[in-house]
Amino acid sequence: MKPISIDSFEVLSEVSDWWQQFEKSRRSVLDMADTAPGATPVESVLEIERFRLLRFVSDTPARKKIPLLISYALVNRFVIADLQEDKSLVRRLLEQGYAVYVLDWGYPRASDRMLDLDTYINEYTDAAVDFLRSEHGVDAINVLGICQGGTMALTYAALHPKKIHCLITMVTPVDFHTEKDRLSQMVQDIDVAAAVRALGNVPGLVLNANFNAMQPFSLNIKKWLDSVNTLQDPSKGAFFLRMEQWINDSPDQAGQAHQEFITQFYQQNRIVKNTVTIGDERVDYRAVDCPILNLFGSYDHLVPPDSSRAIKKVVGSKDYTEIELPTGHIGMYVSRAATQMPEKISAWLEQKG
To answer: Which of 58, 128, 183, 337 could form a disulfide with 325 if both were Cys (CB 3.0 to 4.6 A apart)?
Structure first.
């Protein structure tokens, strides 16, 4: 029988220590209070099928006349902008005196596979914008578009320019063929139409697997090894669990809309070519003439800075401001650098009247 080496004993010792730490973490998790993401109450003010327009409820009445509408991505849920009280972009904007609303795209069912971008932009978004214009007695509203939701908000602003007072884009992809856009490189050769024919709606789990594949070690191994220590701290542990619930709350994607978005934006890069078509209408991004504030992260691995910066070249507006923060994609919502964003957004909106 081969004798056990010292190295083997060291490995066993490491595993034993890790397992003891895991058990402490398990007990800590059981003792934690509610860790559901979402710090601010919401109420539904408009519903169309599975789409809802939600208002964030604040104890303080809004002081600003023009409401702020958040357009978030279809891929994940908007609660990342309101994850917990001390990491909530929404709550800080409410404190700045804005009436804040969000487009809740819902969870598509199998029967929704033919929902297209025309429905999301010209029906759902337009209905929400018209509701807010009437409700607040204004001709145009302010829109904060985040990630894919920013691309959709930019497209909406091009189709309905008179209804947008100011447009704020955050980690928003515009040029999908920049050198460091690894996500775009991953999908270039995918036959999206065939995938949609086979799957109908595209499962959120499939998309999450693709995102994790971009940083396989840090997102699939290191994060969970580190979590053993993280979960022993009640504050850090609760934040970690909220993040994990948000990450894994990925709605399936309506097949037709997903196919259109991947094909026109990621594969064909039509925004920079000014050839996007929504429904039967060609989108002219030069029609966007409202003031634009563009926010992006220096270390964003999903939306590289150059992808976001391209908005300046495609729109007709000459009133353009950009702010680059030293953080990554998710850090735009929850990092220390992100804490300054609400004040920057509010100060910029104040200048625009």
So the answer is: 337
Range of the domain at 278: 42-352
Q: Which residues pair with 295 in a beta bridge?
A: 170, 323
Which candidate in 73, 129, 146, 147 is catalytic?
A: 147
In a domain, 340, yes or no: yes
Please state the separation of Cα 221 from the chain's center in Å: 24
Runs of H (alpha helix) within 137-233: 148-159, 182-187, 192-199, 204-213, 216-217, 223-230
**Integer Cα distance of 194 and 206 in angstroms:** 15
Residue identified by tokens 């408009």 is 46
Region label for 150, one of left (φ > 0), alpha (ψ between -120 and 50) or beta (otherwise): alpha
Asked, for residue 328, whether it belongs to a domain, the answer is: yes
Q: Can you tell me whether residue 67 is helix, strand or coil?
A: coil
* Residue at 90 is within a domain: yes
Quick one: tokens of 209? Answer: 């697997």
| Domain-located, residue 133 | yes
Cβ contact 35:95 at 8 Å: no
CA distance 51 to 106: 5
**Total domains present in the chain:** 1
| CATH code of the domain covering residue 163 | 3.40.50.1820
- Which residues lie across from 138 on neighbouring strands? none
H helices of 32-164, where? 89-95, 117-118, 126-136, 148-159
Angle at 298 between CA 92 and CA 285, to 5 degrees: 80
Q: Each residue of 273-310: pLDDT tens digit?
A: 999 999 999 999 999 999 999 999 999 999 999 999 99
- Kindly report the pTM of this predicted structure: 0.88
Could you confirm whether 290 is annotated as catalytic? no
